[in-house]
């Protein structure tokens, strides 16, 4: 028995729109990518975009298989861009095998995206402790109850773990799990993309020098 597949026009995706929100010129760029990113992130916040700090984190395992997920940027400086997670999760194992990653920020309403590529390192546990204790109580209990990425029978198991922790720590001071910590990507390359009309987008690459202080800037084709 053979099966014949035909193209269904109803399944074709032809969703297009033009990008006319803004422009990006070389003379407008900051000399370093961190200053430029600060400005763009502030623009996203000023526009009251939801989840302005959401970023796609992509890693690759030892077999070279890519994996992507959305996480939240928690802080950044000239050293790099940081987030927190369970350090025995799938992404943590992938980073242990291959400590290189990329981040992608996409602000649709501003027709902008930023790509960041570099090497990843763990943050000091003291930094993780400070951030963990600053989180809302519910988030702290959930993090303490969940062994991220591990198989689980059902949601009730998780809810039972959270309830047990509340009984053990009625004052709300649940301790940070030893395996819960932070990562920082030290960027080697960043791309700032501004959507433009007729798909003639503006794209600029910042490339790190050997000292990670002097950055070259290059416009590239859309």
Automatic annotation (TrEMBL):
EC code(s) of this entry: 1.4.3.5
InterPro entries: Pyridox_Oxase, Pyridox_Oxase_CS, Pyridox_Oxase_N, Pyridoxamine_oxidase_dimer_C, Split_barrel_FMN-bd
SUPFAM superfamilies given in the database record: FMN-binding split barrel (SSF50475)
Domain annotation Pyridoxine 5'-phosphate oxidase dimerisation C-terminal: ranges: 180-222
Binding site for substrate: 16-19, 74, 131, 135, 139, 199-201
Protein name: Pyridoxine/pyridoxamine 5'-phosphate oxidase
Cofactor note: Binds 1 FMN per subunit.
Name of the coding gene: pdxH
GO biological process: pyridoxine biosynthetic process
Pfam families (UniProt xref): PNP_phzG_C, PNPOx_N
Family: Belongs to the pyridoxamine 5'-phosphate oxidase family.
Pathway(s) annotated for this protein in UniProt: Cofactor metabolism; pyridoxal 5'-phosphate salvage; pyridoxal 5'-phosphate from pyridoxamine 5'-phosphate: step 1/1; Cofactor metabolism; pyridoxal 5'-phosphate salvage; pyridoxal 5'-phosphate from pyridoxine 5'-phosphate: step 1/1
